[in-house]
Design a protein that fits this description.
Oligomer: single chain
Order of helices and strands: HHHHHHHHHHHHHH
Number of strands: 0
Length: 332
């Protein structure tokens, strides 16, 4: 279904949307720690590729067995492009960078995906113009993440791996591009089929990158620790099957600005888990940062809800709203 088509069915219930946001907020926040543990004894690209090929194969196979239609060649091509942008380039770069850059700075750089998504959505044809409220929310969210990371990390710029930092910025842009354009490119009717296809495409490319970069020679199954193996299993089941499926579905029913708020909440969750599990610092600064981040999320969500309310307005008012770049709700 083309993303510019208005679906006459009502918007999904708030409870369903809230559960999907909880998945990408909490589950994806925990994947920072899981990725770091997984690559302790498994090469990064092969680990990420294995994760997505297993998860994508399970999800696609289950969806087809339960009655989902077989996608056309055009849909496969379009879905593969977005899967490569988001998973092979975006997530693969994050996985690789966690070998070389502190998790706090990584979280700050990855949070820029929210800004990229709003900008790319505005620049694309018939895209949504960000409102003042949305821009304020973005600024608050990014500022909260900067406060969360703290000035100490930024003051250690001399020790920063510049290549890894640039890779993370590029990864955020690539993820944002795949997310935004997945809304307008041909896609299967089933969100779970689309998620499985994206993970399969991204996973295969990651395995090719890992093999071509010599990671196969570094694999020693006997040296894989229990912690790495359990972390990989967690990433497959929760980070991919639960988290990514929820994310792909949310892109169909919510605006990019609202979905992108995960990039602000994830660092907060990641640092809390670091304190809880690894004994890292968690003090007043993090509590204040959490309040700022959640305030930004609330503003973005409030701004994103306005198009839905305008969709119920009289025709004359609705036409005016659409002329101003109002986003159209998509079929789940």
């Amino acid at each position: 279904m083309n993303a510019s088509t208005v679906d006459p069915r009502p918007r999904p219930g708030r409870a369903r949307i809230a559960l999907a946001f909880a998945a990408i907020y909490l589950v994806w926040g925990s994947t920072y720690l899981a990725i770091r543990y997984a690559i302790d004894s498994i090469p990064p690209f092969l680990m990420a590729g294995t994760r997505f090929v297993i998860a994508g194969g399970l999800l696609y196979g289950w969806s087809r067995l339960t009655g989902a239609r077989r996608p056309s060649r055009a849909v496969w091509l379009a879905t593969a492009v977005t899967g490569i942008l988001m998973l092979a380039v975006g997530n693969g770069a994050v996985t690789w960078s966690e070998q070389r850059i502190p998790s706090g700075l990584a979280a700050l750089l990855v949070a820029s995906v929210a800004l990229w998504m709003v900008l790319l959505e505005f620049l694309r044809r018939n895209g949504t113009r960000p409102t003042r409220l949305s821009i304020l929310g973005l600024m608050l969210g990014f500022g909260g993440v900067a406060l969360l990371v703290g000035p100490a990390a930024l003051s250690n710029a001399r020790d920063l791996d510049v290549l890894a930092a640039l890779v993370l910025v590029g990864a955020s842009l690539s993820w944002a591009a795949g997310s935004v354009y997945s809304r307008v490119l041909p896609r299967p009717e089933s969100a779970s089929v689309g998620s499985g296809m994206q993970m399969l495409a991204g996973g295969v490319v990651l395995l090719i990158i890992g093999a071509s970069s010599g990671e196969l020679g570094r694999v020693d199954l006997s040296a894989v620790t229990t912690r790495s193996a359990l972390s990989l299993a967690y990433l497959v089941m929760f980070g991919s099957l639960v988290g990514f499926t929820a994310y792909a579905w949310l892109l169909r029913v919510c605006t990019p600005a609202a979905v992108a708020t995960y990039a602000y909440v994830n660092p907060m969750v990641a640092m809390f888990l670091g304190w809880l599990i690894a004994g890292e610092e968690f003090g007043p600064r993090m509590i204040v940062a959490a309040a700022v981040i959640l305030s930004g999320v609330a503003l973005i969500n409030r701004a994103s809800a306005r198009p839905a309310r305008e969709g119920n307005a009289p025709a004359k008012r609705r036409k005016s709203a659409e002329g101003a770049g109002t986003a159209l709700l998509q079929r789940p």
